[in-house]
């Protein structure tokens, strides 16, 4: 199997590629429900997290859709050319995404710094509610994505700096569009999981709750730089 980053494939990459070929060959039909994570883990002799990573990657390129509490299904309309087109389209947007991330890094580091200083109990409560929603909807792409956006915008409000808030709200539409694509890149290129993304947000929350300004700014910067590093690898 060819690996796009020229490094030995992880178990999840092997599983992803094998399942992709089985789907394209017709073993699993469009709209068909796939075996459970537990069944796949037993079949491939790997951990459940490895299977979840592989399924997340296939979802990112449009081959699967996952229903919260309802299982994983092959996309209704599927072809090799369409799958390749989804990947190419995703990668072609990396230059614009990189520019947005560069702006976000500077704005959100400032938001995080002052949020750690000025956050109120109400701010912490709002952030915690968002994290709870994110955790409860790890397999629900729409709900999880909205919780991700809400977290970053609420973080700006917790800075209690009207200019930071205005800057984040002014790019809210671009933020939503870019976050959808960066989440796909996160899951596809680095085989990360929704659980890992949630844990990063939880660490940011904990640093804000402890009013650790240095740690909060470092965590939010690192969070955004991880996606930026993926984008740099994918940009010609």
Automatic annotation (TrEMBL):
In this protein, which residues make up the domain named HTH gntR-type?
9-77
Q: Which UniProt keywords apply?
A: DNA-binding, Transcription, Transcription regulation
UniProt KW Signal keyword: no
**Superkingdom per UniProt:** Bacteria
Q: What Pfam families has UniProt attached to this entry?
A: FCD (PF07729), GntR (PF00392)
InterPro entries the record matches? GntR_C (IPR011711), TF_FadR/GntR_C (IPR008920), Tscrpt_reg_HTH_GntR (IPR000524), WH-like_DNA-bd_sf (IPR036388), WH_DNA-bd_sf (IPR036390)
Name of this protein: FadR/GntR family transcriptional regulator
What is the protein's species of origin?
Paenibacillus yanchengensis
């Amino acid at each position: 199997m060819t690996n796009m980053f020229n490094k030995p494939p992880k178990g999840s990459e092997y599983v992803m590629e094998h399942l992709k070929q089985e789907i394209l060959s017709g073993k699993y039909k469009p709209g068909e429900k796939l075996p459970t994570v537990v069944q796949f883990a037993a079949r491939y002799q790997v951990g459940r997290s490895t299977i979840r990573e592989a399924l997340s990657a296939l979802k990112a390129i449009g081959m699967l859709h996952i229903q919260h509490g309802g299982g994983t299904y092959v996309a209704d309309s599927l072809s090799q050319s369409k799958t390749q087109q989804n990947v190419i389209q995703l990668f072609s947007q990396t230059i614009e995404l990189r520019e947005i991330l560069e702006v976000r890094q500077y704005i959100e580091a400032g938001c995080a710094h002052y949020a750690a200083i000025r956050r109120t109990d109400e701010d912490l409560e709002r952030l915690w509610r968002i994290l709870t929603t994110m955790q409860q909807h790890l397999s629900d792409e729409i709900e999880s994505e909205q919780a991700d956006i809400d977290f970053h915008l609420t973080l700006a409000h917790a800075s209690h700096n009207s200019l930071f808030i205005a800057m984040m709200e002014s790019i809210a539409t671009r933020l939503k569009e870019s976050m959808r694509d960066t989440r796909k890149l996160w899951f596809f290129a680095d085989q990360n999981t929704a659980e890992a993304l949630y844990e990063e947000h939880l660490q940011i929350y904990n640093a804000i709750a402890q009013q650790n300004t240095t740690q909060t700014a470092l965590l939010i910067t690192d969070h955004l730089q991880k996606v930026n590093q993926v984008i740099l690898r994918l940009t010609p």
